[in-house]
Fold this sequence. Notes:
This protein is mainly alpha-helical. It has helices at residues 2-14, 18-34, 42-63, 76-83, 94-131, 136-149, 156-172, 178-197. It starts with a helix and ends in a 12-residue tail after the last helix.
Amino acid sequence: FRVLFVLGAVGLAVSFLPIFSQGREAFMARWETAAVGSQGDAWGSIYDRIVNGFTEPFKWAAEAPFFGHGIGVGSNVGARLLAGRLGFLLAEDEWGKIFLELGPLLGGAFIVFRLALTGMLALKSLNALLVQRDFLPLVIFAACGFPVALAQWAPPTILGFAVIGSGLLLASLNEDTEEEDDDESSGETAIEDDTAIGPVEPEPVRVRY
């Protein structure tokens, strides 16, 4: 919490610098331009973009067939084979595409699996931070959490980030220490058993003349 407080204070101080204000003005101008057609402002456009990412897929789930349109129909390869062009035949966002491809039942189960996987990685990262004082798993989770939960898995680059990031996170936890502890404990018991027997008297050396 102290690290978060320091980072927040530093971020607040940096926000008053001229270079940061120029970037903020350019960022908000882009959203203002995008919100002209919807008769809103930049903050409303940002809010709609964030909220629609979680609410719009369930609207697609209500319209999707029970078994969906088929796996791969929403991908670029499916669009090329079915329509002869590249594009989004079903939905642009990942959750909406999952519902339309797999149907509301299987699609919902797959989304729950991805959320459960993300939650498991988050809990393991927080446990490593709070118990072992290890920041590395949480840093890796900050990069791979979004691809695992919400990002599109059709592009191989994003799927690779999700898989490799999750693998690196699990590898950074160093959970395979039980076998080493067992080996060390068995070695110590063996040494104690040897010492319990007592010193071994050396046998006389017979020399043949």
